[in-house]
Design a protein that fits this description.
Number of strands: 10
CATH class of the domain at 14-161 and 230-259: Alpha Beta
Shape: globular
Helix content: 25-40%
CATH topology of the domain at 14-161 and 230-259: TIM Barrel
Largest sheet: 8 strands, parallel
Strand order of the largest sheet: 5-4-3-10-9-8-7-6
Number of helices: 12
Order of helices and strands: EEHEHEHEHEHHEHHEHHEHEH
CATH architecture of the domain at 14-161 and 230-259: Alpha-Beta Barrel
Radius of gyration: 20 Å
Length: about 280
């Protein structure tokens, strides 16, 4: 979010804005594999950050995060050199303002269905005259409370907007959404897309996979970040071959649930079937 530059013969430190870590990461690796953080605990943040993922997403849409707990996670992740994204519960301009002031530079906005929605999100992440972001740097962690030099002039360029297309309406308008200036990437959500296509709980349905494949190719061909959730390794590799270059390969809650269930099952005296037909 920022870095300090020591100045000789002075008793103060000049702070410079940090380059967007996700954008920087893409300069060095063609495909980035990341994890979803849904457990609002700083120990979990540190465990995830030190595990070797290329990026972490704090999920404030489905995870029980409020603004304060997002900030606690950011502080924990800040000890590590890893890109951190936040998915808010919705594309709300006022909440986005708070997240940016808290130090978030990359957002994943859920349920984007139109180019108009995408344009509003672009504006929400930028100061006037190109956007509508409110000026409140005296209260903003992002600007280190007015101590980051040149923040107003450099902040816009360090924002990264990824919009999430996850229903049939969004797929229908995908071309227009992709072409919105200021949209850095589009992330496809197979679970919600499957539900909107009439296949809830069946993201691996052939019709759903074909729609995802076509979307990923289209996004990548437009030169944008092409993202997707794919927990199973063969599916992740398949979608990478289709053009995905930002792949979510793990969710902390599922990692814990599977490890705990498998460990307990290894000590059961009799085999117990614990299968669920609920799929993500």
């Amino acid at each position: 979010m920022w870095k300090m530059k020591a100045l000789h013969h002075h008793k103060f430190t000049e702070m410079e804005i940090t380059k967007n870590k996700l954008k920087e990461a893409f300069k060095h690796k063609p495909v980035l594999h990341g994890a979803w953080n849904g457990i609002p605990n700083t120990y979990v943040a540190e465990i995830l950050a030190g595990s070797g993922f290329d990026w972490i997403l704090i999920d404030a849409e489905h995870g029980p995060f409020d603004l304060n707990s997002v900030i606690y996670q950011l502080q924990a992740f800040g000890q590590f050199d890893i890109p951190v994204l936040v998915r808010p519960h919705e594309g709300n301009e006022n909440y986005i303002k708070q997240l940016l002031d808290a130090g978030v530079q990359t957002l994943l906005i859920p349920m984007v269905e139109t180019a108009e929605q995408a344009k509003k999100m672009v504006q929400a992440m930028r100061y006037p005259p190109t956007g509508i972001r409110g000026v409140g740097t005296a209260l903003a962690r992002a600007a280190q409370w007015n101590r980051v030099n040149n923040y107003f002039h450099e902040a816009n360029d360090q924002m990264c907007l990824i919009v999430q297309v996850e229903n049939t309406a969004g797929i229908k308008n995908l071309d227009e959404i992709i072409n919105v200036e200021g949209v850095d990437g589009v992330f496809i959500g197979p679970a919600d897309l499957a539900a909107s296509m009439g296949f809830i709980g069946q993201p691996d349905k052939p019709e759903v996979k074909q729609t995802v494949e076509a979307a990923l190719k289209k996004i990548r061909n437009a030169g944008k970040i092409s993202g997707v959730m794919a927990i199973a390794k063969p599916l992740a590799e398949h979608y990478i071959n289709c053009g995905a270059n930002m792949v979510a390969i793990a969710i902390d809650t599922l990692l814990l649930a599977k490890a705990a269930t498998d460990t307990a099952a290894g000590y059961q005296t009799e085999s117990i079937e614990k299968k669920s037909n609920t799929k993500y």
